[in-house]
Amino acid sequence: MRAAQLQPREPLFVSTPPASAASGTGAAGSGATRPYPTTRSRQRARAASRPWQINRFVSGRGVDPARFLEAQRGDLLPVQYFHVVFTVPTELHDLFLAAPPVAYRLLFTAVAQTLQQVARRRLGITIAFTAILHTWTQLLLYHPHLHCIVPGGGLDAEHTSWISTRPDFFLPVRVLSEVFRGKLLARFEHAIARATIPSNRDHDARDRLKRAAAKRWVVYCKPPFAGPHQVLTCLARYTHRIALSNERLVSLREGHVSFRWKDRAHGHVRRVATLEADVFLRRFLLHVLPDRFMRIRHYGWLANSARKRLLPRVHALLGGAPAAVPLPPPAEPEPWEAMLLRLTGKDVTRCPHCGAGGFLVVEVVPATPRREDLVPRVKSP
Questions:
Q1: How far is CA 172 from CA 39, 259, 378, in A?
Q2: For 263, which DSSP code?
Q3: Read out DSSP for 274-288?
Q4: Above 60 in pLDDT, residue 372?
């Protein structure tokens, strides 16, 4: 993919300065002005100001994944689990980039209604699942898709009995693909008609919808999990993964960034890719989600609105005890170092090389710098 194709549709900064800026508010004699930051530029500034987040959610190693897995452990059922992935065709990528919050919400809604409707019609059950949004490939290209972890069964219409699926088959993926295509395209058409998703000048949004409708969409179901413990391993791998972790970075030399990637098309061979620094940053920042956007969502009787009412009934129907009630928190909050050691077995107070302990805090670096340091200056045209 060419670098020009990776540039976002929205400019990084609006170059038109205010009337008062024309009198020389910038550097003397340079004509520099302070631009109006757009919504996307503010998101990039916040992401650039928090480089520690690049390695904050390395799967299975941070406090946040450990807390998430501890909370999910009580929700596991003694049934077969399936892993279903819904992908978005390339014809819709520009529409996703034009309004990410709207497009991602439409994606979640279309996937949830597809799974629930097909399961109700084919099996006569009410299912539940966890959906996780990913937007990247191994080369950091834009590729929005949802990973869904689905228990192999559900409740009947009266919520009085549990109906299991076949141990090696969940739902026909071709039916899921066709229903998913129709639901997502219908919602995109409605959003474009209401101008919720803007249409670019050089491309007709409805033409993109027609070309996407003519394609066969990819929905695939991975082999069933071996058991509930493997489900936890999968959740640790997918829930708190980001586009690129520090372990994959190789070098930064002469304005070029090298990183490792896995070539799945040729036997999962590990290779090294080298990109210009601006292209690398452009690709990485494509995957910064909108503020306060929930990329992990629960549906059915796993949703917050029905979890307390229906999940204990599901455990009872399956012959297991409901999830254990968590113990009250101690009088003093548990330090994050002790929690990480208890949940993952990793002692961050010891040197990873020699094993010596007793690190001393020399200096605490603030997570977010001053706001005035985040606003760059550009020259007016």
A1: 41, 37, 54
A2: E
A3: EEEHHHHHHHHHTTP
A4: no
